[in-house]
Amino acid sequence: MRAALRLILLMQTLEAFAYYTLGNVLTLHLTSIYGVSDTAAGVHFGIRSALTTVYATLFGPVIDWFGPFRMLPIAFALAAIGRAIFAQVDSLSLALAAIYLPMAAGHGLTNAAFIICIKRITSSSTSPNRPPDAPWGFALQYCALVLGIAICGPTIDIVTARWAPAPPYRALAFLSAVCSVLGLGASLVLLPIAPPSPKMMHSRGGAATAAEAVQVALEAFAELRRTACTARFVRYTAFSIAILPGHSVLRNLDGGLFPKFMLRTFGPAVPKGSIYAINPLLDLLAVPLLSQRLAHVEHFPLVRLGLSIAAAAPLLLVALPATLATVVAFVLMLTAGDALYNPRLSAYAMDVAPLGKEGAFAGLSAAVAFLAELPAGLLGGWLLDRHCSAASYDALGPHGCDARSLFGSLGAFALLTPLALWATPWLLREPLGDGPLAHAHTRGAPIGDDGCEASGFELAGACDEVVCGGASPVAEESQRLTGQDG
C-alpha cells in the first residue's frame, strides 16, 4: 500500500497547489478584471467554498458505493475543465459558472475522496493490535496539503513579478489547470493498486439494468436518511458549525481579506505570497513533530486548543500597529493553532463516521454547515468594504486601511468558536475514545445478533442513538452484511 499512499499524497499536493493558488487571487481577479466590489467578491469566495460541501453531500453516497479511488479521476477531470475555462473567458457569467460548477464540484469530490482513501489505505496496512485510523496517516496527508500551499505562495510572487504590470491571474489559473491534469494522470495510475472499498467487496456485480440503477439511487438516499437520524450525526454537525468562526481566520489568510489587506496597506510590491507561505512551511516542520509527540492525546482537546489560539491571533493586529513585523507575528500565532487543530479534523471526522458510510456522513454534516459557511465566507469582503476599501486606498493610500477595526472584527467573530467549544463540550463532543477499542469496528471484529455488541460500535455510541425513528444505520448494515455472508 506504500505506492498507493505516495500517489494519494502526490495528488493532494497538486490539488492543494491548484486550489489555494486560485483562492489567493480569486477576489483580486474578480475585482481587477471584472470590476466586482469587495463585498461581492467575498460573496463569490464564500459561495465557492460552501458549494464544495454541497457537492460532497450530493455525491457522498455515490463515493461510498462506487469507491473513493474510482471517483478521483472524475473529480480531477472536473477541476481541470473548470480551471481551464476560468483561465480563458472574458465573461463574468462564464467565469462564475466555471467557479460554481466544475471547479467547486471537482474540489469537493477530491476532498471527500482523499480522506476516505487515507482511511482505506491505513486500515488495510496496519496490524490488528493498533488503531487503523492512526493520526500519523492523516498527518502525512496534511503535510502533503501544506506542501502544495507552501509552493503556491512564492509561485504567486514570482508570476506576479514576471507579468507586471499586467495582472497575473489568468496565468496562475492556467497553471492550476495543468496541476489538475497531472492529478488526473496520477489517479488513473492509482486505480490498479488501490485497495477495494467495503461497498465494492459486498456488491453483487453492480447495477446492470436501469431498474437496478434506480434501486441503487433509492437505497443511497435511504442511507442518507438513516445516517442523519442518529445523535452522532447531530453532534458532529453541531461541531462542524461551531468551528467555522475560528476556522474563518485561516480561510481569510488563504484568500479572503489577507491578499487585499496586504496590497492596500503595504503597496503592490509587498511579498504577500512569501509571507503567506510562512504558514504552510512551518506546518511542514511542526505537524510531523506534534503528531508524534501528541499521538496519545485525543482529537477533541487538541482541536479545541488549536482553534482557541488561531481565533485569538487577529488580536495581535488590534494591540499593535500594522507593520510587516506584526503581520508576520500574526501569521506565526495563527500557524501555531493551525498546526494543532487542522491535522486532527480529518482524523476526528473519520473516527466519528461509521465504516462504509464515511462519504454520506461527512457530506450530510457539511450540507447542514452550508448555511453557516456562507457568513464566514462573506465576512472578509464585507470587512474590507467597511474598513479597508479600494476607494479609501485610492484616496488616502495605506492610511485608508483601518487594520485595528478590520482584524478586531475578524477576531470577535472567530472567538465564538472557543466560547462554544469550552462552554458546551457536552453538546459538541462525540463520546468516544481514541484508543484501540474505539476502532474495533474497523478491524473485522465479529458482529453480534443485534449488530452492535460484538462489533465494538457500542464503544463509539453509534448503536443506540437513533433520534428520528427506525433502526440504527450501523445495526441495519451489520445485519445486512451478516445475511449476505450467510
Short description:
With 486 residues, the chain is mostly helical. It contains 23 helices and no strands.
Topology overview:
Layout: H1 2-34, H2 38-66, H3 68-88, H4 92-125, H5 135-163, H6 169-190, H7 198-202, H8 210-228, H9 231-242, H10 244-254, H11 258-266, H12 272-276, H13 278-293, H14 299-312, H15 316-319, H16 324-352, H17 358-368, H18 370-387, H19 390-396, H20 403-414, H21 416-423, H22 425-428, H23 473-485
Distance between the termini: 30 Å
CATH-derived topology of the largest domain: Growth Hormone, Chain: A
> Strand share of the residues?
under 5%
Number of extended strands: 0
Number of contiguous helices? 23
Mean pLDDT across all amino acids? 81
Verbal overview:
The protein is mainly alpha-helical and 486 residues long. It folds into 2 domains: 2-195 and 219-443, MFS general substrate transporter like domains (Growth Hormone, Chain: A); 444-486, no CATH class. Helix content is 75%, strand content 0%. It is built from 23 helices and no strands. The chain has helices spanning 2-34, 38-66, 68-88, 92-125, 135-163, 169-190, 198-202, 210-228, 231-242, 244-254, 258-266, 272-276, 278-293, 299-312, 316-319, 324-352, 358-368, 370-387, 390-396, 403-414, 416-423, 425-428, 473-485. Helix 2 packs antiparallel against helix 17 (358-368), helix 5 (135-163) runs antiparallel to helix 13 (278-293) and helix 9 (231-242) crosses helix 17. The longest helix is centred in the first third of the chain and has 34 residues, at 92-125. It is globular and about 65 Å long. The protein starts with a helix and ends with a helix. The model is unreliable at 130-134, 199-208, 434-464 and 480-486 (pLDDT under 50).
